[in-house]
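Case study.
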Amino acid sequence: MTRNYDGDDMIVATKVNKVYPNKCHALKDVSATIKRGEVVVIIGPSGSGKSTFLRTLNQLEVASSGDIWVDGLDMYANSTNINTLRANVGMVFQSFNLFPHKTVKGNVMLAPVKVSGRDLDDVEQEAEELLKRVGLADKMDVYPSHLSGGQQQRVAIARALAMKPDVMLFDEPTSALDPEMVGEVLDVMKDLAAEGMTMVVVTHEMGFAREVADRVLFMEDGELLVGDTPEYIFDTPKHPRLQQFLSKIL
Amino acid sequence: MLRNSNRWLWHSIFAAILAVLAFAVYQSSQKINYNWQWERITPFLIDTSPKEIRASDSGTVEINADNSITINFDYGDEPQQIINYDERLVEDGDLLFEGDLVARSEQWTMGPLVVGLWVTIEISLISLFFAIILGLITGLMRVSHNPVTKNFAYLYVEVIRGTPLLVQIFIVYFFFGTILDLDRFAAGIVALSVFTGAYIAEIIRSGIQSIPPGQMEAARSLGMSYPKAMLYVILPQAFKRTLPPMAGQLITLIKDSSLVSVISITDLTKAGREVISGSFATFEVWFVVAGLYLLLTTILSWGVQRIEKRLATSD
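After joint prediction, the assembly is written out as follows.
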């Protein structure tokens, strides 16, 4: 199928629906395009489907209908190997999901070695550089259980980056953190955005959205209601439900 | 100091109660005029009596330079070589008939109980090996999303867990043994492996399901295939959690292996029965047999505890 695919588009989602077996309609015709190098923040009340939508972008949730293209690959085409696609899409979870049986360095190295089959020494060197980048040079050989939440989340970011993805998905990366640790994680994300990484971020950190996002998507009840610049969203919201949402949280 | 001595007081009370119980057992056996003969047990554990070596056919003795004995038979059969012995009873050139005493050996040999213990260990280890493979495959089938594999695993586990091991041993030995021409040893191993495999499958399934789903998601989101995610992320964690129930299952396996004596495998239990029919030391033999099983299981649980400690480093 040749569609209006543009080399500038990193992710194209068209009319994505998600209906759970219990008939819960979590996504309703959600369409969005994320350009290369763009930082898109998805906001909305709890249960609005923003995490579900994010998880459809690397098929952790299988969309009930609709098309998703990632870096020119049609996710639901038979010829597409989902593992190849996922290797190109980094994901950071709310609950970190670090591998507890591996050291910090082992967490970062596992996928490049086992998935890409790369040389151990190269991968180790890169892992060390990545961990330095997220400020954890002194924690490489400890196990995740000995780290604070903020440190664990930074390891998780380094782990996702180790696969050299073209796009990064963040699923409420700071929601499980103590307030004093939110900043260190957001700083790493800001650096990443500044380096030109394509990012899709589900978050409740409106400050981050306003400062870093190129575009903000507002979702409610499984629908994508507004998608525009942070200035428009936060300063001159027109949509009544967006106004209502912002009045509650700001 | 005071607290310490208090502790010892309780320990000695424990020892005293044990002693009273032992005395009670002894007294009650006296009442039924049982004559304890512990010394008769030793030869069934380690046989120290001299072994007689006899000529297996008629022939001529030849003493070699290294003192070994060769008997050249009259009818050109392969000569009999006797290398290890302690006392020689023949001279060079002696003529021998079949069954003549040639030499004596003082070498100790394993008594029937130790041989039986060894068979029990052998059966348990081989069964354990196959049971783990079977259990792992079935456990993975149980957590898969394909109804075919899932239902087969479910059926297997339910059928095996719902029928007695003794009956399974009979079915394997008499039915499958006849169809597939299995000897009793193989039949015993098949029955024990299949039985234990069902329990191990459940242990592995619950171990895998106890790992938070986020682990699988994280592994898959990094581009790992399902098998790779299982192998490198889920199973190593699940293995650690399944170690305690697995150890319990192993100990159960060793104990359950006593049931294969019903198909005439001379394991520790069968050896015990045979020894009793030769010695009439019923009480002593069963106590020794129980002690040997206990020794085996104790060593095992100690070993597993050590592995658990070593694996605890990442917690």
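Observations recorded in class. Chain A touches chain B through 29 residues (CB under 8 Å). The radius of gyration of chain A is 18 Å. We will return to this complex in the next lecture.
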